[in-house]
Design a protein that fits this description.
Elements lengths: L1 H56 L2 H6 L3 H4 L7 H23 L5 H40 L6 H24 L3 H24 L3 H52 L74
Helix pairs in contact: 1-4, 4-5, 5-6, 6-7
Length: 333
């Protein structure tokens, strides 16, 4: 009975010692795991904010929106710079998790995270390929639309060219990340081979006469359309130059207004104007005197004429003096 209790006591004590040893061994690793997670979380957040600020400062959103990405993000609450910042943040968090789980040694989670982190550069290159392809497609569509905007089939050709370029970019991006390569590569090869085969067989095979007739019609149509296309391009160029000149004129006017200066405008000097009246005379030279007859109630004397600039005043408009009641009162002084 005593030996059995002694063995149980010994086993219990060894279990406690082993558990304590595990705790003592794992505690530093757990602290390191938590410390790596906290530091990585702060670093990911700060780095995402820095990337977003830098991209907005350099105008990344405007450049990307020209490539058609604006349409894809129209209903999203994030713009292009926000998406890139989020991707950077999650990439840093994945690297942080890989480092944190690496504290525990080799484990399946660390291996999985390592594979994902190794795949991130390929994903970044694929995103760049898609953005560049979208920008090229947008530029090609605008160019074809401006060059063939006056034609009935101009928009169709521009849309087809844009879709073709975007499709090539998507296929290249999928091949870059290694997704569905067994599907995208044969599709691309089939499309290119079909186009080449149709061209070879149609031109060099049984479609010689029909193609000859079509080529004749196409060449005639091209001769008719080329002047229209040239006129369309010249009209677009002239309109663009006029808009640039108008904008430059407005900017120049705003600049002069801001500096308080106005460009002097030369006014052509015309011939001297001649007055239809004789030159004016100084005051006093045009005076004349007039004697009035002595009548009862009137003062006899001279009335000076006001200056009239050398013009004679008719007699009926000469100033006159009318009698008043005071004229009959004797002068008491």
């Amino acid at each position: 009975m005593t030996s059995t209790s002694t063995v149980a006591a010994v086993d219990f004590g060894s279990g406690l010692s082993q558990a304590w040893q595990v705790v003592v061994t794992s505690a530093p690793r757990l602290l390191g795991f938590l410390l790596v997670l906290v530091i990585g979380w702060f670093v990911a957040r700060l780095l995402a904010k820095a990337v977003n600020a830098v991209l907005e400062r350099v105008g990344f959103d405007r450049v990307v929106e020209r490539g058609g990405v604006k349409t894809a993000l129209a209903r999203s609450e994030y713009d292009a710079s926000d998406v890139i910042a989020k991707l950077v943040r999650y990439a840093v968090l994945l690297i942080t998790l890989q480092l944190a789980f690496g504290v525990w040694g080799s484990n399946p989670v660390s291996q999985l995270l390592g594979d994902i982190v190794a795949w991130l550069p390929r994903a970044a290159v694929a995103i760049v390929i898609v953005v560049v392809a979208a920008a090229i497609a947008k530029a090609a569509k605008d160019f074809i639309t401006n060059a063939m905007g006056g034609l009935s089939y101009g928009k169709v050709v521009a849309t087809a060219a844009s879709v073709f370029v975007v499709g090539l970019g998507v296929i290249a991006a999928l091949n870059q990340v290694g997704v569905a390569t067994t599907v995208t590569t044969p599709v691309l090869i089939t499309v290119l081979a079909t186009i080449g085969g149709i061209a070879v067989i149609g031109v060099g095979g049984g479609l010689i006469k029909p193609m000859q007739q079509r080529w004749t019609r196409w060449l005639d149509r091209a001769e008719q359309e080329i002047p229209r296309m040239r006129e369309q391009v010249e009209a677009n160029t002239a309109r663009r130059q006029a808009e640039q000149q108008r904008a430059a004129y407005y900017q120049q006017g705003f600049a002069h207004a801001a500096h308080g200066a106005h460009p002097a405008q030369a006014v052509p000097a015309g011939p001297p104007r001649q007055s239809q009246y004789p030159p004016e005379q100084p005051y006093g030279q045009g005076q004349f005197t007039q004697d009035w007859p002595a009548q009862p109630g009137y003062h006899q004397g001279t009335i000076p004429q006001q200056p009239t600039g050398g013009r004679q005043v008719p007699q009926q408009y000469a100033p006159q003096h009318f009698p008043t009641p005071d004229d009959h009162r004797p002068n008491r002084y």
